[in-house]
Amino acid sequence: MNDQTVFELIHAMEQVTNRMIIKWNQSFNEGLGISHILLLSHLKRDGKIKPIDLAESLGIAPSSISHLIQKLSKRNYIIRIPDLNDKRISYLEITDEGLEVLKKAAEDGHQLQRNTFAQLTNEEIKQLIVIYQKLNFTLDQL
């Protein structure tokens, strides 16, 4: 693969990702971004967690996670729960309101997925998943 092809490939992948994010943001009118939804999804899946551990798990800088937490807390989508033994430590937990907005985000995301991948066969979708998994594994090894 020549260098120009590598950059064309990266650009094409980036375009698809960016356009999917834009389309999702246009359909999901809650004023939240993908990172907010990923944070809520993590809390739903894994339960309460310390903010620093959440930042590490999501691969987000602690300063960025603070901004996400602040916005989600203001909207009552998450709550802070103090540690009973150490008042300096708090945990984050998703609320019922957070579960509702996460449900709406998932519905919008599924519709975008159906629309975006409608022209691909099931076999092509499986191949795409395998390719991205291989690429992610390779990048982890570098």
Automatic annotation (TrEMBL):
PANTHER family: HTH-TYPE TRANSCRIPTIONAL REPRESSOR YETL, TRANSCRIPTIONAL REGULATOR, MARR FAMILY. The lineage of its organism: Bacteria, Bacillati, Bacillota, Bacilli, Bacillales. Residues 6-137 form the HTH marR-type domain. InterPro entries: HTH_MarR-typ, MarR/SlyA-like, WH-like_DNA-bd_sf, WH_DNA-bd_sf. This is MarR family transcriptional regulator. SMART domains: HTH_MARR. Keywords: DNA-binding. The keyword Secreted does not apply. Pfam families: MarR (PF01047). The keyword DNA-binding applies. SUPFAM superfamilies: Winged helix' DNA-binding domain.
